[in-house]
Predict the 3D structure of the following.
Amino acid sequence: MKFSKVLGCAITVLFVAATLASLSLAQDETTAKVKVRWRMPTSFPTVLDNLHGGGVMLTERVSALTDGGFKITPYAAGELLPAFGVLEGIQTGSVEAGYSGGFYYLGKNPSLLFDTVVPFGMTPRQHYAWMMEGGGLEMMREVYAEFNTINIPCGNTGAQMGGWFRKPIDSVDDIKGLRIRAAGLTGAIYADLGAVPQQIPPTDLYPAMERGALDAVEFVGPYDDERLGFHKVAKYYYSPGVLEAGTSFSLMVNKDSYEALPSSYQAALQSACAEVNSRTLARYDDLNVKALRRIVNGGVELRAWNEDIMIAMKESADNVMGKMAEDSAQFAAIYKKWKDYRDSQLLWTSVNDTAAENFLIRNTK
Amino acid sequence: MKFSKVLGCAITVLFVAATLASLSLAQDETTAKVKVRWRMPTSFPTVLDNLHGGGVMLTERVSALTDGGFKITPYAAGELLPAFGVLEGIQTGSVEAGYSGGFYYLGKNPSLLFDTVVPFGMTPRQHYAWMMEGGGLEMMREVYAEFNTINIPCGNTGAQMGGWFRKPIDSVDDIKGLRIRAAGLTGAIYADLGAVPQQIPPTDLYPAMERGALDAVEFVGPYDDERLGFHKVAKYYYSPGVLEAGTSFSLMVNKDSYEALPSSYQAALQSACAEVNSRTLARYDDLNVKALRRIVNGGVELRAWNEDIMIAMKESADNVMGKMAEDSAQFAAIYKKWKDYRDSQLLWTSVNDTAAENFLIRNTK
């Protein structure tokens, strides 16, 4: 080996050593700051980058607020726990927190529905008013207490779309027999309407539509739906999303883990969730209209449910919710208060905010 | 003096001394935590407890997030600076921050309008999407940079009401000659419609209406309006608030003060503002409908603007804004982008969210 080569190697070794040293120093500095480490599974695959992304944003904001002291590591669905195993993981203490939606756990307690979205229910803004000012959060905290869990509203999609259909839906008869992917309560409503709801994980939906195993998909909205490719396998895209007029997600935290936090870290969770709640909705509003334009320009036919179909959906929703209220006194009690609040918010918006918006819709070109 | 009395006095003195010592200890502990102290005037009197209160909430959340390290003291309008002297106070560095609205300073720069509310403009949700995802915040930061100030969206009233009138307004002719309290751009629009707008501080409005010096008041919404007593001096209450479909307030911060903060304190301002933004709106939504019911039950007649009046208002708004765009290239450039964004958000909501809300308004009793 020539001298120059030996020297070269030595320099390389020195350089690598120095780099490693500085990397490890940087890591030490970062690590030294961390005072609390949590793991937080979400119920979403990474492809849904504004749903899983809401959880990621939360962890980033909490880190920024605590000067790196509170490190929460997010995990996509399946990485640590199954998509809908999040609440159980928190309850048993196998994870400290999770980013999910109450309505995925109706089998555990149907009242968890009110944490997320109720058919023919409130807008994101109205839901937040109910939660923060109308006693909703207090009632939901009681429901989650059964699972040793605290919930914080933390993300919203806005109204979801009516869904993707291979054939036009001109009457309730056209719904009968349809194999439609519709999760949770939406599935029960479609069953009441005579459809055959299917439970299929998000990333399996496109192939199921492609090979004809499914006739229709109700999923989220233009941005997420386009990412999953539904515009390539269904011609008709229906709105408005009366079955989910604003779907709210929650940070769920193990109660013992929450109470062990210093109060400023508890405050960080609360403020960061409020921020994520608005920011995810802003992102959806920004992204959805762009995606909708691409989808329609690509040849998909955008259609509005006719009034008869929406009225039938509302009757089915009332049936399904009515049965749930018969089976659970807790559900019945929350449902009554929730309905009173929705009706008062409807009155207010019909007088002012929605009335102003309707004028603009009529008169802007 | 009996011995028992002397003893009693001594015990009292000891008790008082001990109490004072413990008070002073508690104060020392609190004071020791404070690392940054700011003063923050607001543009609102304390009677408007959800407007001034939004500022107060911000200071409380920032304190909680920083474990008491960042103490911001709020001052109501007039306590430290005049209501509309806030931006100048920040620019000159006499205070570090303020809680106010851009539209109070149109004389300094008309483009500040877009920070707050534009006639026939966006809902709170759409405004937030424009700010955070549509390039709005970036443009507004450029405008505020002229004043060495950074703005953060931090509170919203929702759509404001059309206002209080002594006589019915059945046509545009009924507006002509009206002495109406209408601030800022709303005043200019009423002037264009033939009214005679008046600038009167909030707490002087009730006496002015009572003694007949004013014919009408456009102010905020049922909750604030009721607190100022307008329902006692005007019979007709008009909606919808097309001239202010969502009025957004801002935390304004001196740029040097902001940049001197540790990054976690900057994050605290941002997250706390996002939280206050949603929480003030939730409070208004909760309080406004209750106040509206009281107002209507008390004999006030709630009326909707007829279509012709709203169309005339829109033409006047277009006139006024058109002139502003002629006078300022900056205003013209922002206005164009703002309008494109509003129109795309209108399209989206007309397809989905507002369409769902309208079904509910039609079909819920």
